[in-house]
Amino acid sequence: xxxxxxxxxxxxxDRVINYASNPGKTENQDxxxxxxxxxxxxxxxxxxxxxxxxQYYVTxxxxxxxxxxxxxxxxxxxxxxxxxxxxxxxxxSFAPGEATPETAHTIGVKLAQELWGGRFEVVVSxxxxxxxxxNHFVLNSVSFADGKRYYDNKATYAQLRQASDRxxxxxxxxxxxxxxxxxxxxxxxxxAGQEGKPTWRGLIRKDVDKAxxxxxTFTQFIATLRKQGYExxxxxxxxxxxPQGKERFVRLKTLGEDYSxxxxxxxxxxxxxPKKQEVLVEPKQKRMIAGxxxxxxxxxxxKGLQALYFHYLYKMGILPKHTASNKRTHFLLxxxxxxxxxxxxxxxxxxxxxxxxxxxLLSHQSILEQEMAGLAAERKSLYHLLRxxxxxxxxxxxxxxxxxxxxxxxxLRKEVKLCTGILSRSEAMKEILSQIRIEENEQRREEKDxxxxxxxxxxxxxxxx
Length: 465
Prior knowledge:
Blueprint lengths: L1 E8 L24 H13 L2 H4 L5 E4 L6 H11 L8 E8 L6 H16 L5 E6 L6 E7 L13 H17 L16 H9 L4 H14 L4 H10 L3 E3 L6 E3 L7 E2 L9 H11 L32 H12 L18 H4 L2 H13 L5 H31 L3 H65 L9
Helix pairs in contact: 4-5, 7-8, 10-12, 10-14, 12-14, 13-14
């Protein structure tokens, strides 16, 4: 099994990699600029003797490993591209005990030759200092063939991973099945993972996960992050956070697929779905009737407000849909026939969120109102940005975001209105159903008396002395 990754090398590589040796001086002063120190550092790190067994497992492609720094720097000077990304540093790590040093190095060289050998200078080194063998690749960012830069993106990383898997299979090594697509992880995270150390990006993930689990709305999520000490940047294209003690903001979407704004909102929404509580009830012993089989199909019994609304619609002759009621609708229910659409929407809301009583309904309404307040605040901040913005493309984007917030607010207002309607209507519905029940009971008693008198042969109004 081989895992792969690649990241860019910039001018301050010393913040990322802890090198044991200092870069040496060179005769050509053009090669000693601060911008190229990082390139020299990473080349020296990749070819260190204490990691490669006296540099036996170091190979240069389109360059000599001992002079690779000068050759790569000369290529940059030739095409006047000494700025920006200096190089790309990749790795290929094998499972412990699965490959020999010779096999690991052969695979690394073939991989580099296949992907980059036609246009770029590359140094391949196999490190033996860990319990897992791993290859390092130092790839010049500028091509010696045409002076064009190498671009690291999802497509090129996919080629790297696919080529690595294919070569591993050729040498009977295992590969990671169903690997997730995406960019490689940051070097600091990879290195910390190899050494079993935590990273600050990993700590952000844990704090974000904790904030998501404790929130019922996106606004609560933002507030929770701020309580944890994060500075949160909202009202921008990508939400970003900055932990205490850090200079730069981190876009949450860069933490993984589960940390984009849409993914976070979807995870928060799941918190609002009530979890079923399993209650162990001792089964009742039912008497079996000869010739009948027990009905194994069980349906959830409606309670509270849900049962009230379903019973009310039944009395109105609306439910069940597949059978037409022969009974006339009670005159007390005629008024609500005009409000049938609203009654149906209220019933759907109660069933969708499994609301059974007024406490749950008020709680749901409170959550909606908090979410509305948060959306209104975010929309207000966008309006402020819009008034100060001069860029046409950015103005169009702000307007699109504002329209999205307005649409969400409109839907939430309708749902809040339904909640308010349920609270005010439910009591009146109970009184109407109670009055109908009294009249029906009285009518049944009269019908029963009439039936008994008919059986005794006495006309109405005649009684025994």
